[in-house]
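hiii so my PI (J.) wants the whole complex modelled not just the main chain, which honestly fair. so below is everything: two entries, each one labled with what it is. i double checked the lines twice but i was tired so who knows lol
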Amino acid sequence: MKPKTLFEKIWDSHVVYQKKNYPDVLYIDAHLIHEVTSPQAFDGLRKRNLPVFRSIRTWATADHNVPTKNQDKPIKEILSRKQVEMLTKNCKEFGIRLYGLGHPYQGIVHIIGPELGITKPGMTIVCGDSHTSTHGAFGNISFGIGTSEVEQVLATQTILQYKPKTMLITVDGKLKKGVVAKDIILYIISKISTSGATGYFVEYAGSTIQNLSMEARMTICNMSIEIGARGGLIAPDKTTFAYMKNRKFMPKNKEWDKIIAYWKTLPSDKDAIYDKELHFDATDIEPMITYGTNPGMGVKITEKIPNVPTAEKALTYMNLKAGTPMIGLKIDYVFLGSCTNSRIEDLRLVASIVKGKKKAKNVDVFVIPGSKQVEKQAKKEGIDKTLKNAGFELREPGCSACLGMNEDKIPAGKYCISTSNRNFEGRQGPGARTFLASPLTAAAAAITGRITDVRTIL
Amino acid sequence: MKTIISTCVPLPIENIDTDQIIPARFLKATTREGFGENLFRDWRAKDNFVLNNPAYFGKILVAGKNFGCGSSREHAAWAIKDYGFKAVVSSFFADIFKNNALNNNLLPVQISESFLQKLFKAIEKDPKTKATIDLEKQIISFNSQKEKFDINPYKKTCLIYGYNDIEYLLSIKDKIKEYEKNNSNFAR
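here's the output for the full assembly
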């Protein structure tokens, strides 16, 4: 039998139907929905008079558009409130589980999936959000879809998809002090650009990746879309199984033993062939930061802004000059959150830097936990107090200033160091200027008020 | 949709992401209509942006490579369509955008970088330059230049005859149920 990659094993086992010249019909095991990209899909179902085909496989939460303060009170902004109410109404009408505002499981859709054990190895997972690739950290095929596709999945639990090509990215070696998962992925994006993996599904492997925690692996897979890949995945191993055991939607007892046996068959066969392979050396990676307006415009924090003609428009927007060192640039805001970096380990990293220190006077810092459960855990560990003593504000869960849909926006012309995933023009608010970095680097900047090499204060 | 003949609107910028096409703060609507008003909203704030230039109009948007990267928001395709475009021409498209466009009868035409640059030059020289996109023959042409473009045969049929994916999937529901029966042993 032909050796198969992890990706191919999962894809092939989910093909419901194949027809010449047609895309494959792929079965979807888990469908996650939120308030922004689902209303038009439900409308479509109503127009066609269709039920949700397998409502048991769909989970809903409110995250993109929710306020991060006073979530117990009605949403002030009328359009946001209407959109969130529409989700509640649709879930009720079509019989879908909803972890909405006020629910102990509410949170960013890509945080709650793994935390509740909805996300498992060997699955297919879709969501109307490009960072669905996050779930691939557990060894499954997860990818973002558009609203028309959300409707297809609601109506049939399947989706029409062309099989993408496969890419293997290996990272080997020991990470330097102060270097975390976010730096690895920002480094990779800076090397291969935002379209370097378009048309591919990426598997991450190598000793560096294997030694990462599940939460760190999620940070890597999360930003797969930022290299243009539809998704990214990592072979499940002991670390994966240990993270998943006893989570709410995980099989228990005998069923657990059975499913682990299946999951162990998933990793790529020896001699499996990928369409493309890339290799990176972990010892070359340093704390990373972006200077421009796409995630590929990144440098090592100790470097200067490069002089490349393609960055001219970006530097005009950022009001920065080529040749300027990154270290020392002044910042106005610090955003710690998003589906990339809002899990408990991220908050622990932040707390480790700011403990006993005070934020710089010139900066506003907001910390947005990824979910109610992350928020609860942070409080249990006293992280909320550490943050408060440093002058940081721990708010309530949501996507927040990652995309500036709610009121959490960075004002025009201001600089924000952000643990999120995109530094596009206006992403964090019209005219906002974003530096993407790790939670460690962002926390260090919050203390000094400037871009700082975290290793100098560790 | 078979043939589109129109003047073009040039946007010679690379890596145009969906946050530029439709900023997130305009995603609060719960219907598919009306997004055209906010197409490239923040860029339109500048007087010299191409959509503010009356010399350029038409049904074909011509853009730099890696068009539509970033967020999966289908609102980007809706906004372009709602504004009045029927096709987007570029030398490279991001995956999700391409799917979203096809699902909304907005034709993504992927051409070579050299052909794209020739088209940009021609439009710059004469904004009245018309391009012809023949979907059946898969050929895009302007002046005396032409190039063949790729499109998946299934999607091509859908566009020409107005079929969509959901109808196809609903037609094979029995096969989906059979798949579920045969795979019920997977605890997934």
